[in-house]
Give the backbone structure.
Amino acid sequence: MPATSGLLALPIALANVGPLWGVVIIFCFGVINMLTVAALAETVVRSGVARFGLGFLGQLAQEYLGTAATTLLTLALVISNFLVLIIFFLGVGGTLAGATGLPAPIWMVFLFAVTLYFLSRRSLNATVTTNLLIVFVNLLIVLTILLLALPAFQWRNLTGTGALPPFTPAALGSIVGILSATFLSHFLVATYGPVILRATPVAALGCVAVWLRLRP
Amino acid sequence: MTIIAVLWLLVIVGVLSPATLSDAKGTVVTPLAALVGPAVNLLGSLLVILSLGLATIQVSLAQYYSLEERLPAPGSVSWVGKLPPTQRFWLCVSPMALVLALALWLLSSGIANPAIKYKIEVGSEVTVAVASRSRQMKQITIQVCRWS
C-alpha cells in the first residue's frame, strides 16, 4: 500500500479531530500494526511453507486455518489487489503525464513493463535493494518538505481548536481508510520474509525490520 | 513510521490552518505549495510517483504469488500443470494485463479523469483562494468582464 504517499493525505483526513486526537489515533494504528506484524512474522517463521518461499499467504492460511479461510483470504487479497492496482496505474500515469507532458497511457504501459521485469526476475533480492533505495529517497523527500514548511509554522494553527470543523461520521471513513493504507501492509511480511529471514536469524525482529524498511 | 507520521501531522497542521485543511481535496501538496513554494509541488509529485511506483511492484508481486500458489503444481496431471514455465508465468501475470487494459479504458472513456468545466457568465462574480505574501490563504472575489 502507498504508505509514504498516504502521509500526504493524512493531515486532511485528521483535520476534523484536531492534532491531539490525531496523534492518539496514529499511535493506536501504530501499536496495532506493530503487534499484528510481529504475530504474522512469527507465523511465517513457524511455517515451513512460508519461510522457505514454497507458498504465499494463501498456503500459510491453509496450514493454520483450513480450506475455507484460505479461499476467503485469497479471494479478498486478489480482488483488493486488482482494484488497488487500477488506482495505482491511473495515479502514476496521471502524475507523470502532468509532470512531463507525455500522455498518461505511455507511462502506464511503461509502469506495466517495469512491473513485468521485476516479476520475471523471480529473485526478490534485486527488488529488496530497489525497495530500500526508494524508501530511503522517500524519507528524504518527506523530511525535506517538513524542513521547507517549518518557517511557515504557526502555534495558533496547532492550538486553535475553536476553528475545527464539526466531526461527522463520514470523516471516520477517511480516517480509517487513509490510516489503514498508511500503516497496514502485512502482505509484505509474507512476500519478503523468505528472503530476509535467511540473513536475519531472529525471526520476529527480522520480519518487523523487513516491514519497516520496505514500506513504500 | 509512527514517529514520522506524528511529526508530519504536527508540522503540517501547524503550517496549514484548519479551514485550509478541511477545504483541501486529495493531498496537502497543493495548499502547502501555495504557502511554501513550488518546490513542494515538485517534491510531492516525486514522492507520489516513487511511492505509488514501488507499491505497484509490491502489490503486483502479491497478486502474482496469490495466483501462482492456487494453480495446480507444475508437473501435475491438469492442463495447467503441464504448461511450460514461460506459459505458466504469462498465465500468472494475465490479471496484470487485465488491470492495464481496464486502467487504459477508464482513462480513455473519461471515467477516471472527468473534465471539470465551469461556465462563467460575463458580469458574474468568482471567488478564488490565493496565498498572500505573508503566507496566509485569503479569498478574493473577481468580477468577470468582457475582454476588449
Observations:
- Chain A has a mean pLDDT of 78.
